[in-house]
Write a structure and sequence with these properties.
This protein is mainly alpha-helical and about 220 residues long. It is about 75% helix and about 0% strand. α1 crosses α7 and α4 packs antiparallel against α8. It comes from Miniphocaeibacter halophilus.
């Protein structure tokens, strides 16, 4: 992978990471629960059952199952596709962006929109992308934070680490945070707490994949 193509891929991955941070904040605002990582949701299902809040438990369980379904879809569609060699990555993002925009405009129901986000997040998180021995996860940062801490610990122990790997991980965490911050300052106060911005970001990511990454390795 040449440097120019590598930079395109990293930019694209970070765009998806930014989009996930943005979507997660809007989901928390609208439904009171994240849709891009499931650890907290699984814990909250148990706690909701303890409080006998079965409606909340059912909503959280549905989000977890939709995230799981997204992973199944990702494995079914992308399992045998080499990254950068198939159009399906870009087409998927464009299609889901259009679907999300239509659903927000026509339906506007917070449960349906959140369900689409959860399904999309699960599919996105299951994309078959690896970088420098890191399995790319663009929808939650728990593993990345652990990796950052581990690499810093190794460095403090006097051993060599791949600085580029550490820089990528730190960049991803910061970009995810900035996505959430952008949602707070752009969408929440002025725009009716909608998901149109997420729709646009997915469509842009899809077109960028087709334009900058699809069949461009080595060019």
């Amino acid at each position: 992978m040449n440097k120019k193509f590598f930079n395109r891929v990293i930019f694209w991955i970070l765009l998806l990471t930014f989009t996930s941070g943005y979507a997660n904040v809007l989901s928390i605002f609208r439904l009171g629960t994240p849709t891009t990582h499931m650890t907290g949701n699984l814990s909250n299902i148990s706690f909701s059952m303890f409080e006998l809040d079965f409606k909340k438990a059912a909503i959280l369980l549905a989000i977890v199952l939709l995230f799981l379904l997204g992973g199944i879809i990702s494995g079914y569609i992308f399992n045998n596709r080499s990254f950068g060699k198939g159009k399906s990555y870009g087409v998927f993002l464009i299609a889901i962006g259009i679907l999300l925009g239509i659903a927000e405009y026509i339906i506007g129901d917070k449960y349906i929109i959140t369900a689409i986000i959860a399904l999309t997040s699960g599919t996105q998180n299951g994309l078959n992308i690896a970088y420098n021995e890191i399995t790319i996860r663009t929808t939650h940062m728990t593993g990345y934070l652990s990796d950052i801490g581990r690499l810093i610990g190794i460095k403090l122990n006097g051993r060599n680490i791949e600085i580029s790997k550490l820089l990528y991980l730190i960049s991803a965490v910061l970009i995810y945070f900035l996505g959430g911050a952008a949602a707070v300052f752009i969408s929440l106060p002025e725009q009716g707490h909608n998901f149109y911005e997420i729709s646009i970001l997915y469509i842009i990511a899809g077109f960028l994949y087709l334009k900058l990454i699809y069949n461009k390795d080595g060019k």
